[in-house]
UniProtKB/TrEMBL annotation:
<feature type="transmembrane region" description="Helical">
    <location>
        <begin position="171"/>
        <end position="194"/>
    </location>
</feature>
<dbReference type="InterPro" id="IPR024788">
    <property type="entry name" value="Malectin-like_Carb-bd_dom"/>
</dbReference>
<feature type="domain" description="Malectin-like">
    <location>
        <begin position="5"/>
        <end position="142"/>
    </location>
</feature>
<dbReference type="Pfam" id="PF12819">
    <property type="entry name" value="Malectin_like"/>
</dbReference>
<dbReference type="GO" id="GO:0016020">
    <property type="term" value="C:membrane"/>
</dbReference>
<keyword id="KW-0812">Transmembrane</keyword>
<keyword id="KW-1133">Transmembrane helix</keyword>
<protein>
    <recommendedName>
        <fullName>Malectin-like domain-containing protein</fullName>
    </recommendedName>
</protein>
<keyword id="KW-0472">Membrane</keyword>
């Protein structure tokens, strides 16, 4: 099994004897934070990592066909100083998305299922048109045969399909800003070239008319 304490860089053993690994040594996305209200709180929940885009943790070397249990814990603790517990979506592999509504208490989401591939991915995010809520996670625990390494990554660097968001029967595709800029620049370049060719053609016709 693997127990990840999000938003931390150290490893530790809690009062129950559970060993935790901080995600700070491998997480390249998301923002680490500390909750404001830690009174009576287990050490594993005092930190968290929050995200501005749909982000996934990938656990590899899972034995295909084996039973996997994934448990995530969410404790808001007013980490952002807004006194407004957010609501967001969590998805384990291809299983249905679960809406997490946080509050003053810890919210736990646990699911046991059969691994269909050697990699288990656990994703957090909000709908693409939601500018109010922020996704976060305090701890991730994965139990299963072959659970080994962790990689925090995000589909924000490539074209992606936003799960559960559809428009006119088609999935919304989020295209990276760099690609959009490239397409715009390319479009302007083509327009200028076409305009120049048309002007040259008109000039040639006019010159022919005067000969």
């Amino acid at each position: 099994s693997l127990n990840v304490a999000c938003g931390r860089s150290d490893s530790f053993t809690d009062s129950d004897g559970t060993s935790w690994t901080g995600d700070g040594t491998f997480a390249t996305l998301g923002v680490p934070a500390v909750v404001n209200d830690t009174a009576g709180l287990p050490e594993s929940l005092t930190h968290l990592r929050w995200f501005i885009t749909r982000t996934c943790y990938y656990f590899d070397q899972i034995t295909v066909g084996s039973s996997v249990n994934v448990t995530t814990n969410f404790y808001y603790g007013n980490f952002d100083g807004k006194d407004s517990p957010p609501q967001f979506q969590v998805q384990y592999d291809g299983n249905p998305e679960m809406t997490i509504s946080t509050g003053s208490e810890t919210v736990t989401y646990s699911l046991t299922y059969k691994a269909l591939s050697a990699t288990v991915n656990i994703c957090f995010g909000v709908p693409i048109d939601d500018f109010t809520n922020t996704a976060f996670v305090n701890t991730i625990q994965v139990e299963g045969s072959g659970v080994n390494s962790v990689l925090l990554n995000s589909a924000s660097n490539t074209a992606l399909v936003i799960s559960g968001k559809k428009k006119k029967g088609k999935a919304i595709i989020a295209v990276p800003v760099v690609i959009v800029i490239f397409l715009v620049v390319a479009g302007v370049t083509v327009f200028l070239l076409v305009s120049r060719q048309r002007n040259m053609a008109r000039l040639a016709i006019q010159q022919g008319a005067y000969q």
